[in-house]
Amino acid sequence: MEKLLGDIEILIRNYSAYRGAIKWRTYRESSSPPENPISYDGVYVKIFRNSYNVLDCYPISALMKRLEIKRNPSLFQTIFKLWQLINPSALRSISKEVYTVVVESLYKMNQQSLGNPSLTIVNLKNDMEVDFSNKLGLTFAEYYDVVFECIDVLAKSTLISEYCRIIERCTRVISESPIFSMTNLHSKLHLKEPQRVSYYSWMQNLMRNLTPTRNSEQQLPEIFKRVILPRDDRAVNRISQKIPRNESSKLSKGFSIKEAMRKSKSPIRSITPKLINARTNDNNLFSLNYR
Question: Source organism's superkingdom (predicted)?
Fold first, then answer.
């Protein structure tokens, strides 16, 4: 139950209908304000929403399943990629301007917005006030909560793949948006506030898994593998690519790698004599004839 306290605190906020874990809710009923807005009996969690004067009932088992989805490594990685897109400077938080681009893109996917586009702006304005409160920016942890609450309503099933597809679609829409291209992603004005927790404790292991180990070559992209090859291997590979097979067989054992590299470097060919004949004597020495 302790694991759920953070998510329950989010559910009790006065968000619009575009959030609120609707598909996990068992029922909703009208109610007068209780003494405690949160109550549970070991099976259900009941949350009173002051803005609607209703009592929402959630099975604890359903909220645990929801938490499991939220902390899924694949979903975390997908949401983190979106964070990298909107925060290329790796600032500790994002501004309201950047937040608006992300949330508006997600809200436009809601079926209610398709029928009434004005709901996107109305709900965005309401939820922005709740998310920012007295804050100037949102840290990654706060951003993650916001994004998950949005896609949790959009996803009709509990499949991780559907959650990831929604984020991937949002990422494509944002990257192609002309509004996003004009957004100042590097502004630091919102950083003029006290620092807060950037990552939850459960995120630490997932963050480490996103960073490849130094000696694990399989986890590195192909371009990194080429960079970390030993220097001698890279030289031999370049030589073998530049020298045709029929010529490579003519090279004597006494022909060093340095000489081959000197011959293969095109920038100096125009200012050095051409090697037109190379023959070895009994002592494996070359007699060089120059034009």
Answer: Eukaryota
